[in-house]
Amino acid sequence: MKKILLALNIVFISNTFSQSNNHNICGTSEAMDSYYQSNPKSKIDHDNFELFTAEYIKQQGANKSSSTVCYVIPVVFHVYGNVQGGKLVNDTVIQRAISLLNKDFYGLNPDFNTVHTNFMGIRGTMPDITFALAQLDPDGNPTTGIEYYPTTSGYASSTNWPLIAAEAWDNYKYMNIFVQNDLSGSGNYTWGGFSTFPDTAKSNAKLTMIGLNGIYLGYNSGEEKSGINTHEVGHWLNLYHTFQGGCAIPGDNVADTPECDYLGGSYGCHSSPTSTLPINCNNVLINAENYMDYSSNSGCFKMFTQGQVSRAYASLYHPSRFPLWQPSNLIATGLGNLCPGTNINNSFVASTKVLVYPNPNNGTFEIQINNEITVGELILTNCLGQIVHKQKLIQGLNKIDAIKLSNGFYHYAIFEGKQQIGIGKLVIE
Ligand SMILES: [Zn+2]
User: What CATH number has the domain spanning 350-428?
Assistant: First the structure.
């Protein structure tokens, strides 16, 4: 398996900025141990938040995948060189990357329904978490949410922390993603990315970040490789690798992901949806298609589990994550219209009064409004939060023709008067 990893040379490093000589090893636990040793308060905070997370998951119970809050995360990309490894990294590529990221979180990735039968029933999605490019910068000026800089490398190295802190936008208002072709600064141009777990000290220092390699963004290396972004955002939402701790308890602190004993490696994909391999140290089939595995090496990123989803939702209440999705911050970052109306009190409820189908669609779809509603209005926004379509709705069946919209991912919001009665995501493909 080492050969495969070397051949593809995708390595993820989370919560670490020190470079490992062996890029096949993630180094997460080592890096965290090291970080916590020099930052004991962060270690205490981390342990306390694990207690919160456990309590949150206990309270969520069976509703863990159906939260009633609209979570929008403002994102800014810092791009260092608009050609990386021969691949363009421009606005279009970044917008596609965001769209693909959201698709993975919603479970709309094309291979979502092909996972191994053992894990089909525990797939988890996060349909109410949306990542959106900021439309206002920290000074309140219009922005694309994408900042370009001259080609630079090495932002995975702590020696560059001062540069990162200087260029990052407020970590409590934006998720900062840094895109470089050589993240390590050592001439490794195929290293995929790194990330940071929730940590107040890092956010205070403007060092909460995700690092990505431009060669894998959007469709630059195919849709599968875009899952590297999903993997790193998973870390940003406090998810460990599925092989964290090997077979030792507590592993990745997620109840429904089987232990993995291949630290820093990958066993490859299941050969079929009913394959009996690969198995772990307890002879149990592993979840090789998990985003938090290294399965991108083998080309089988497909899913999060419900347990991971619960843990990720809990992370949004960490002091370093909570401020980002608050309505006041969405307004400050120009994204207030992604969760309009009732999000002010964070209590919107996905309505059963409205049905939108089919979804995904080819640009022609219908909205069924039940007889509790007399008249409504549809507002369709793109992934940048721009309104692209408005239409009055009547009780019963409404045909919506959005065929002129380009393929991609949109939000719909449906209002009765000023009251929002439905919200969701729409994919046109
Ligand atoms: Zn990772």
Answer: 2.60.40.3080
144 or 369: whose pLDDT is higher?
Answer: 144
pLDDT tens digits along 333-345: 999 888 754 333 3
- 335: CA distance to ligand 1 center in Å? 29
Q: What is the pLDDT of residues 68-107, one digit of tens each?
A: 578 999 999 999 999 999 999 999 999 999 999 999 999 9
Distance CA 319, CA 327 (A): 16
Query: Could you state, in order of their start, the residue ranges of all structural domains in the chain?
Result: 2-325, 350-428
Task: Determine the Cα–Cα distance for residues 310 and 58; give it in Å rounded to an integer.
Answer: 9
352 C-alpha to center of ligand 1: Å? 37
The full DSSP string for 78-102 is EEE-SEETTEE-SHHHHHHHHHHHH
Residue 154 one-letter amino acid: G
What is the 282 CA–ligand 1 centroid distance (Å)?
23
Q: How far is the CA of 418 from the centre of ligand 1 (A)?
A: 43
Q: How far is the CA of 261 from the centre of ligand 1 (A)?
A: 15
Higher-confidence residue of 10 and 189: namely 189
Distance 83 CA to ligand 1 centre (A): 25
Mean pLDDT, rounded, for 388-409:
77
Give distance in angstroms: CA of 114 to centre of ligand 1.
23
Output the pTM of the full model. 0.77
CATH match of 2-325 with 3.40.50.2300: no
Quick check: helix, strand or coil at residue 343? helix
Distance CA 185, CA 152 (A): 9
Cα 191 to Cα 11: distance, rounded to the nearest angstrom:
5
What is the Å distance from ligand 1's center to 141 Cα?
34
Expressed in angstroms and rounded, the spacing between residue 251 Cα and the centre of ligand 1 is 14
**∠ Cα 315 159 9 (to 5°):** 70
Buried b or exposed e, range 261-271, using 16+ CB within 10 angstroms: bbebbbbbbbe
8 A C-beta contact, residue 145 and residue 133: yes
